[in-house]
Amino acid sequence: HVDEEVTLCGWIQYLRQDLFVILRDFSGLVQILIPQDESKSELKNAFLGLTVESVIMVKGRVRRRPEGQENKKMSTGEIEVCAESMEVLNTCRKLPFEIKEFVKKSEALRMQYRYLDLRSPRMQYNLRLRSQMVMKMREYLCNLHGFVDVETPTLFKRTPGGAKEFVVPSGDPGKFYSLPQSPQQFKQLLMVAGIDRYFQLARCYRDEGSKPDRQPEFTQVDIEISFVDQAGVMSLIEGLVHYSWPEDKGQINVPFPSMTYEEAMRDYGVDKPDTRFGMKLVDVTTAFQGSQIEFIKDALLKPSGCIQAICVPEGTVRTESGDSHSYVPTPQLNLQCSQCSLISKQINLFKQLFLMAQANAGDLIFITAGPRENVRPLLGKLRLQCAELLESYGVPVRDPSVFHFLWVVDFPLFLPKEDNPEMLEAAHHPFTAPVPEDAHLLYTQPRKVRGQHYDLVLNGCEVGGGSIRIHSPPCPFFSVLLVIRDVIAFPKSFRGHDLMSHAPDFVSEEDLKPYHISVVWPSADIEGQQDNSM
Amino acid sequence: HVDEEVTLCGWIQYLRQDLFVILRDFSGLVQILIPQDESKSELKNAFLGLTVESVIMVKGRVRRRPEGQENKKMSTGEIEVCAESMEVLNTCRKLPFEIKEFVKKSEALRMQYRYLDLRSPRMQYNLRLRSQMVMKMREYLCNLHGFVDVETPTLFKRTPGGAKEFVVPSGDPGKFYSLPQSPQQFKQLLMVAGIDRYFQLARCYRDEGSKPDRQPEFTQVDIEISFVDQAGVMSLIEGLVHYSWPEDKGQINVPFPSMTYEEAMRDYGVDKPDTRFGMKLVDVTTAFQGSQIEFIKDALLKPSGCIQAICVPEGTVRTESGDSHSYVPTPQLNLQCSQCSLISKQINLFKQLFLMAQANAGDLIFITAGPRENVRPLLGKLRLQCAELLESYGVPVRDPSVFHFLWVVDFPLFLPKEDNPEMLEAAHHPFTAPVPEDAHLLYTQPRKVRGQHYDLVLNGCEVGGGSIRIHSPPCPFFSVLLVIRDVIAFPKSFRGHDLMSHAPDFVSEEDLKPYHISVVWPSADIEGQQDNSM
Predict the structure, then answer these.
(1) What residue stretches are annotated with the Aminoacyl-transfer RNA synthetases class-II family profile domain (chains A, B) (predicted)?
(2) Which residues of chain A have a CB within 8 Å of the CB of B177?
(3) Of A5, A275, B96, B443, which has the highest C-beta tally within 10 A?
């Protein structure tokens, strides 16, 4: 645009040396040259009276910057605009904080001045990225795959079961609408109505307070398809994610790896494993077989009693003295245990344990004894907690720039009722179809029946899930849903308007009491003696 | 696909002569040939046991239909599928109504069995058309014009003024959220936040019962732009409508014609005129100047008193006897008036009246006397009512296949308060900027100040509207909004999930009493005598 007359509107980013104004709008920055000519002193003074973040309209002429003054870091760094006239559209008074990335603001302040906070490059990037990703998803579903975008009502009847719902008083005293937890019923009716392929970016509501990955209102990519099987849905969703994936986040590969629920619980103690790092759960029951340690004996006597461990590589840190023999457990992980001395005498047991856990010098091992259904989730939580703690000490555990997508499949169709573990209830919802090969077990061994339910997990977050519906008792094959949770549930770099701090869901001491001991392997020699620090 | 093995799933549309099944899915119909071979009698019997609308899966081979048996009306009319196996996915029992266009159903029945009603070709077409139009709108805004799609919260604070809002009890006793009437505040904050170009397909809520063109929850294309003027927004919206316009509805031309509020009120008695037909309002005050008729004299003495008329072409119909001299007024329009005989004596007045109204033989003229602000809206309503009545008698007035888009501009900035006409209130919202040339009248003649507000009208429906905002007292130029109402407000062929009957908002007799007389011009001769039927 060199030599062109232009009109620019935007916010003042900087004022520099009475010579330049840097103007910002949605598309970026540009340098405005303040005229130094005597005849334009009025215009110059107007510029000098400006404050940062004021909104102005400048008319001027574009010119190439003098040689050597280009700024290669700026996309408009080769040009500048010589101001010819300027109008102040709005003056900015003193702001509660500067609009700069490096200025740390409290969350409360950011929320109070949300309209200023959103001016930051990071928030602008997030909002625009979300808009573009959602647009690509729509193109994929609507234009490439013939889905019909149907807006379903949000003032509706209460759905029995599920989350607590917001209610809306109707004009009819004593009667209320409910805001939907999801468009579940509507989309299944749409299948009956022959829409075949439905999608919606659906607003959903749950009156359950804010959680890091779920706010009271959130948006999900809501899909329902007739005449399809689990493999068909999974490949559709892989295509969807692949198509809408932002270029600047690097390539992702499809198909995504797949893991059964049983494998996920066995190796990671959770049904949404973060597979960016190891520290898998190891069953070390055999090492303790025949052990005389009282609480271990007790644990193994219980039904499904077992002993499991995780090994935290470099889980111990050197003291500042640099003494290589003086390891201390990572603070906060230093759980006291009166029985440690008892264990520490069992050298052979230790040998076996370290081999099974593939432990090296400086590693930290957690051992847990108890019923399998308790031990696994607990070690699963500890595993994540260890990763966070190590990272907070600067040890790289999870690469924040990689994206590990993972399908978790073959969920149990039933789980024990929370308030009455003798009884069963649907693990997801009561219309999830069983895996056909397991259908014959429905009335004899219902705990063994797997459901045609599948979750999509990204770096340890459940970002989607769905199931094949029961459409008739004998033939579990009809229509499916795939819900991708709001971009809010994506890792930090994807979050749009969510500013909730991601407080990790720490294991409470209460949780830990009955099960845990911590063992710190103290020396470089796996055959060696235990350290006195225990 | 001739000679290919295919698997088809769908609904049974017809069963024909024990030979064919017509299967339907979202993409259309296909003919399945039932095997007649003795060896396949089991499969044949399975087909013969089927009921219409049952859901089946058929595997078979595609073949070209025998010569002469092609069906040119069917897109798959050149082929058929020879069934090799069939599975019943769901059996259809007796339905409350047949899924056929020509079977008339009551609205209540359609609503009760919405999932069956939506199977009809018309509803399928509407839902799919809506989805496609909305997708095109998004492409235009997001991909072609750099708009950012931002989802704003729906659990929010109450907005003072405006429509009645739905409330949602919060966890905090005595405190409530409001469901938004529109994302007004959020989008203006987004402008402050530097989003520059925002759009959203926004769900809005008004607790005001259902109206034909506004349901308690509805969706609008919600737009806000920084640094733009009225002409810029209008051309953006013309582009949006043009880009997303469905091919099968014919070409529409941009730019759309424009009319001032004053012109619309003068010619059509309404700010959203249906310009598909004439019957414009005519001021016939001069014809009655000096009239001795008491109520006319009275009316003209009042401030802004006037006499206006509309001429309804062919507004009278012949009786069944065919007697050409025996016209009767269209039923329901035959408003009795004790003063008719008085008027009918004034032949000269009549001559002038008919000339001014450009009336021909068989036309019907309505004359109204009173203050202009009452007379115009009343004749405006009557004009629409006449069009509907004529159409119900088979007289073509409005072509249902044409789409007359129209901008209405230069709205007054203030209107008299409803409960106190001496006072003024903002005609739209209090942050609409005045037209710059009128700004100096703000404190002296506020009634004369025009606002930078504009409405988009389609065939007499307000389908959109917006305004330039006040961003600072002296300079009304900053950001604008354009709201296109939900597709629901489009004419019938565009409606998606709206099934409300469009009961016309008839003028009540109460309304008519103080103002109206009807004059029926009875014979073919404009110079002739009035008919006895008066």
Answers:
(1) 127-527
(2) 166
(3) A275
